[in-house]
Please model this.
Amino acid sequence: MFATGIAEEDRKGSYVDRSISRPCNFEISQQSPVTHTQYPYVTGTSVLGIKYKDGVLLAADMAGSYGSTVRYKSIHRLKAVGSHAVLGASGEISDFQQVTQYLDELVLNDYMWEDGNKLGPQEIHSYLNRLMYNKRNKFDPFWNSLVLGGVENGQKYLGVNMIGVHYKDNHVATGFGNHLARPMFRNEWREDLTLEEGVKLLEKCLLVLFYRDRSSINKFQIAKITEEGVVISEPFALKPNWDFKAFHNPTLGADGSW
Amino acid sequence: MSSIGTGYDLSVTTFSPDGRVFQVEYAAKAVDNSGTVVGIKCKDGVVFGVEKLIVSKMLLEGSNRRIHAVQRHAAMAMAGVAADGRQIVSRARAEANNYENFYGDEIPIKELCDRVASYVHLSTLYWWLRPFGSAAILGGYDRDGPQLYMIEPSGVAYRYFGAAVGKGRQAAKTEIEKLKLSELTCREGVKEVAKIIYGIHDEAKDKAFELEMSWICDETNKVHQRVPADLLEEAKAAAKAALEEDMDAD
Model:
């Protein structure tokens, strides 16, 4: 794998017997397939995505949770892929970083052809699907829900991918966003949303997620993809309102709670 | 200069009594017989130009690519056996990719040159491999600025201000030496390279040729690109005009 490294088998004097490195099982029953450690460690929460009049908007917060602790507060969960697509991820952050490395390689190899063609968001999504599905079949999945938004030839694209299940829609969300944001999208989304309306809708949902999702923080990024290209905003905060009556005495009616 | 190495030229692992490895020299001959490839390092980047001799009228214009991007910040222009050249480019891309995966940054041009030269040299060490019949002019732009290298079939690689290989290399080198490269911008360099290639093309011996040019400079944001069509046309027109001036002068 590395130019400077030497494969174990080739190193003089060391003989690695592959057959004994797997766990030995003398029982007659079938050996279960080799699996890899698969629980996530540092995770990101919801990603939201909507199509609007001129393109696609994606939104995510910048938190990386280590279990119940919000440990990292400047994780970039939205990443540009090529010139006309953005990938957002929830789930294991290190897996997301690996996926983006694969995508960078994919985009670079496409660039090096120098033939005037470029991979569009649909093709990148297909590639992601193969990546996720193949890893899942080896019992070694990327622990992510990926959202890919992009624009190609005026066609807006918005797709989700998780363990190789993929689908596309006019508005998508991952994780908690599915429960809290999608109902709001279903009520308020229109094909001809302007940029301002789209951002306002996303911000409304992000705020609700901040109120109700314990792994989210008040620090967000919104990515805009149009025919002109990709713009990912600087981190920004929203103004939460803690004056709701329900927040004044949250345990009213809940005896025994504190 | 060329001598028959009877008996000592059958294998790349055989030295001749006067210390030459003939197989490697023969490989270099394959490069010498190909169309000229020129590379220059200007003050803000590098420019490549290739005299692509057209072997058949049926060939589509723009086919038979000779300049290949290696990552975004570097490119190689190949001379000699085309298939060998493709293999070298493939290896260069793999090395650059490996470096980026390992170190997280674009490969420095010097490092890339070292790795490619090692690979080319490798094929001169074993009797079951034949040397590559191509030379590569490698140019790129990293944090040390623009750089130009040339890797020969022997595995030797040097850094250059200006380099030329192929049929018209002697004439091309003479022309390059006349240029004040440290003051030339890449825009001007493109015109100069076009002039050089048109100038050294031998109308009598070889019929038609197609000019392929590319550059990596500040103007392209340090990224490899084909020279844009309008600039290329300008350069070709200027080159043809210069040719006619010379002919009139004669």
The interface with chain A takes residues 65, 68-72, 93, 95, 97-99, 101-102, 115, 224-226 of chain B (CB under 8 Å).
